[in-house]
Structure formats: C-alpha cells, structure tokens
Write a structure and sequence with these properties.
This protein has nine helices and seven strands. The chain is of the alpha/beta class. Helix 1 packs parallel to helix 2 (38-50) and helix 4 (102-130) packs parallel to helix 6 (151-171). The chain binds NADP nicotinamide-adenine-dinucleotide phosphate (NAP). The site of NADP nicotinamide-adenine-dinucleotide phosphate (NAP) has 30 residues, from helix 1, strand 2 and helix 7.
Length: 245
C-alpha cells in the first residue's frame, strides 16, 4: 500500500529530481513533471523504478493552466488521491533591473508564481475533499533577502512565500499544510548557468559550512515536510542554505 501520489513539478533535473527520488523512497507514487527535458525525466523515473518505487512522467508547462489541470486530472484518475504537491519548477535570470524587459518579467512571473498558483488551485479541491494534503513550495533565499541583478526573481520568490503563509491559514482547517523551502546556493544547472567559477568560489567562501548545497540537501528537507513528523508545521519558510542567510 503506497502513501498516495506526490506530484513534483520540474522533476526532470536538479532539486526536483532529487525530491522525486527522496519522496519515492518514503513510499509515494511520483508524478515526475517536466517541460522540455523528456529523456531526463525518463531517467529519473527509471531510477525511481530501479529502487522499487513507482510513478509516471508527465509533460506540462506549469504556467499553462489547462496543461496543469490535465496533469492533476491524470494523477487523480490513476492514483486516487494526491497526498503531496511540490511546486519546484522554476527559471532564473541574471540581469540589471534597468535591462529587464516586459517579456523577461512576464516569463519570470508566469513560471515561478503563476505556476505555483495554477498547481495549488488545481490540486486543492481534491485535498480539501480528502481533508489532508501537503503542499511544499520551493522559494529561495533571495525571496527572503533579495538579490542584486535578480530583482524579478527575488520578487516572485517573495511572492511564493506570501502565498505559502496565506494559503496555510486558509486550508489549515481542511487538514492541509503549506510550507516553503528557501534554498541557498545549490549546485544544479541553474546555478551553473547563473554563476561563473569565480562567483561560485566566492559563494563557497561566504558559506558558513564551507560548501554549496546539493539537491539532496533540499530533498531531505522536503521529505521531512511531507512526513508525519511535520504534522504540526504549516506556513513556515525553512532555510536550507548552510547558514548563508
Ligand atoms: P534547474 O536545474 O534549472 O531545473 C529546473 C527545473 O524546472 C527543470 O526540471 C525544468 O524542467 C523545470 N521547469 C522550468 N520551467 C518549467 C515550466 N514552465 N514547466 C514545468 N517545468 C519547468 O533548477 P534547480 O536549481 O533545480 O531549481 C529548482 C527550484 O529551486 C527552482 O524553483 C529554483 O528557483 C529554486 N532554487 C534553486 C536554487 C539553486 O541554487 N539551484 C536556489 C534557490 C532556489 P525541463 O528541463 O523539463 O524544462
């Protein structure tokens, strides 16, 4: 008997892939959501299955509401209930504030904020019906403190925190918890694209624990928030940043 289904957005790579594997090891069936990286999503699912887990890959752009509704509908039809939603899919961009175009801004908001709205709103009727559920939103340390040359990214990640706190109050009476994780600098494609070697060395030097985070560091925190040990925790922002903040 599994614990129901966990939908992990942006699970084809990086932090999302690690969360998918970690939640699978806890006994959840996993929807490995991807947008562009189908073969990587298949590799994640193969790994899940090779460790005795179960799940599916599902292509869906989280900024597109009808695609999100299709994914949630598929998961509910196949697995009966969605126990956990992890809103992890995200994009980043390094640009001076004065260079950010309307298109840059719209893309940032549509994936990183509309995406969280779409997935939460699509999954919540079934969680409310079940009177249980866990929503885990992946924000960022920059959403708490702000980052130079990432004003649009910082703004939407702060928006995710606001959404987390407000939604936690609204759906708490329905037995649903909503929490956010604010990762620091985690070694993934996103960090490699955003930072050159010199910047990465500087980030390591600034880190009290003397290293960058791994996707598994974040995945373990997500697994805790999805577990029974976190029953009484909601509306919180858990920093997973090696003391960076
Ligand atoms: P990553 O390696 O760039 O992976 C991004 C993931 O998001 C990929 O699986 C990608 O899927 C998916 N994605 C992007 N746009 C999507 C869309 N429109 N619809 C569905 N999926 C989409 O990034 P990461 O570092 O693992 O970051 C994961 C999350 O952690 C993000 O929300 C990011 O902002 C946050 N975060 C990261 C760091 C860090 O240092 N790495 C720090 C703080 C917060 P496809 O490849 O299939 O398109």
């Amino acid at each position: 008997m599994t614990k129901g289904c966990a939908v992990v957005t942006g699970a084809s790579r990086g932090i999302g892939a690690a969360i998918a594997l970690e939640l699978s090891s806890l006994g959840f069936d996993i929807i490995v959501n991807y947008n562009g990286s189908e073969s990587k999503a298949r590799t994640v699912l193969d790994e899940i299955k090779s460790r005795g887990g179960n799940g599916d890959i599902f292509k869906c752009d989280v900024s597109n509401r009808s695609e999100v509704d299709e994914m949630i509908g598929f998961a509910l039809k196949k697995y009966g209930r969605i126990s956990v939603l992890v809103n992890n899919a995200g994009v980043s961009q390094i640009k001076l504030f004065t260079d950010i175009t309307q298109d840059d801004w719209r893309k940032m908001v549509s994936v990183n904020l509309d995406g969280v709205f779409n997935c939460c709103q699509s999954v919540l009727p079934s969680m409310i019906h079940e009177k249980s559920g866990r929503i885990i939103n992946i924000s960022s340390v920059w959403g708490v403190y702000g980052a130079s040359c990432e004003v649009h990214y910082s703004a939407v990640k702060a928006g995710v925190i606001g959404m987390t706190k407000a939604l936690a109050r609204e759906v708490g009476p329905s037995g649903i918890t909503v929490n956010a994780i604010a990762p620091g600098c985690i070694m993934t494609d996103m960090l490699r694209e955003d930072c050159d070697d010199k910047t990465i060395r500087m980030l390591v030097e600034e880190s009290p624990v003397g290293r960058l985070g791994t996707p598994q560091d974040v995945a373990k925190a997500a697994a805790f928030l999805a577990s029974d040990n976190a029953d009484f925790i909601t509306g919180q922002v858990l920093g997973v940043d090696g003391g960076f903040s």
